Amino acid sequence: MSAPRYTQPTKTTRPRGSRLIETYSPKLGRRVSFYSRAAFELWLGLEADPAIRTFCERPEILTVDGRERVIDMWVQSASGDHFVAYTGDTRLPAEWNGLPVRRIVDADLAATRMWASNWERMLPVITLTRDCVSRQHLADVRRHIRESMSLMRVERELGSEDPMWLRGAVFRLLATGILLAPMLRTERLSLMTAFEPAP
User: What's the mean pLDDT in 109-123?
Assistant: First the structure.
C-alpha cells in the first residue's frame, strides 16, 4: 500500500451555525471531527467498508466559480484514491488535483441509513474494546463462526461473563470483511442479528 496522500484534515474554520461531531476512528487510530450529520454518515460508511484502506476528512479546499468548497473526504482503496464530496452542486469538478471526485447526494445517504445507523452503534464497542480484544480472541471467534449464527448464539456458545469484548471481536471481524452480516443493511442490530463467514 502506498503512503497516504493525506493524514490530517486541512485547517478550516467551522461554518457558523454548523454542528460539531467528534468521535474516534478505529481505522485511523485517532480522533476525527465533522461539521454535519452528512459528513458523519460518510465516515461511518468508510469505517464499515473493508475495501477502504485509509481516508482523511476535509483533505482539500477547492474553488468552484470563485467560491471555496471543502472536500469532505479523501479515500484510499484497493482500486485507487479518490475524493468524496457531499453535494448536490453539479458544478463540482469531476477531478481535482489528479484524483476523481465522487459526489454523494441525499438519496445515496438515505439508501444506506440503516447500515450507517447500525455502525454508529458498533463502532463505539470496537473502540472501547480495542485494548482487550487480542489476536487470540479474534482467532477464536473466527474459528467458531463457521455458519450463519445469531449474536445471541455466539455469546451463549463462547460463554463470557462480560459479552462486551466478544461483541467487540465480532464487530471488528465484520469491519475487516472476515465476517458478513447482510441483515444489518435492512434491520436494526440486535441479539438476533446473524453473522456468517465471508466466502
Answer: 96
